[in-house]
Amino acid sequence: MGEALKRQNQNTYKQFLAIPKDLEGTKYMDSEIILQAMTNLNNQSIVLNIVREFTDYFKCKKCNPFIAPFDIVLGKEKEEIKGIQPDIFIVCGEKPSNQNEFMGIPTLIIEVTSPSNPRNDIVTKLKLYKMFGVNEYWRVSPKNKSAEVFEFDELTRKYKEPILYLRNDIVNSNAFNDLSIELKKIFK
Fold first, then answer.
1. Phi-psi category of 177—alpha, beta or left, where left has phi over 0 and alpha has psi -120 to 50?
2. Which pTM value belongs to this model?
3. Phi, psi at residue 73, to the nearest 5°?
4. Which run of H or E residues covers position 89?
């Protein structure tokens, strides 16, 4: 079973919420209801290692890290609302308004590239995050033991050329000046 077993075009987020909660593994992304493949042990380990670093960093700050599965509803005044479940996201200043979703634009989103559908993280999610002006997007590759950091440019409404970090590098955040993570700690 692939990431997108069956795609139904132009579904609304409201239709997605009506799906019985006992139907596990579905997600809503870019107007489509998708049956997603389960993650693997390596990806989960990487996500947990990143969250461990973030938990220490954000302990005394007004920002909170969240992990999947937790819905984000992206939307701006005139732009269409899109739902998504990133691996990790950081929300500053406000907590989700309800227990099931966060409505707004996170400051930072991290995706650990899925081995079953890397195109989803490499193309689809990058396009979506750019469309809604996500300030910073990290794409972490377990296969290459690397991370790419995309910084959003408000003037051009595009991401600047990504910075590539390799296994022995230290990833520096643009959104949080003093946040840095040694990649070797997350690829243990």
1. alpha
2. 0.77
3. -105, 105
4. strand 88-92
Rounded Cα gap, residues 108 and 22, in angstroms? 30
Q: What is the pLDDT of residue 124?
A: 83
* Residue range 81-126, pLDDT digits in tens: 777 889 999 998 866 666 777 888 899 999 999 877 767 777 888 8
Distance from C-alpha of 183 to C-alpha of 141, rounded to nearest angstrom: 11
- CB of 144 closer than 8 Å to CB of 169: no
Amino acid at 117: N
Do the beta carbons of residue 181 and residue 171 sit within 8 Å?
yes
pLDDT of residue 24 exceeding 90, the answer is no
Q: Which residue has tokens 């396009």? A: 127
Domain annotation for the chain: domains and CATH numbers: 39-68+84-186 (3.90.1570.10)
Cα separation, 99 vs 132, whole angstroms: 23
Q: Which residues of 170-184 are buried (b: 16+ CB within 10 A; e: fewer)?
A: ebebebbeebebebe
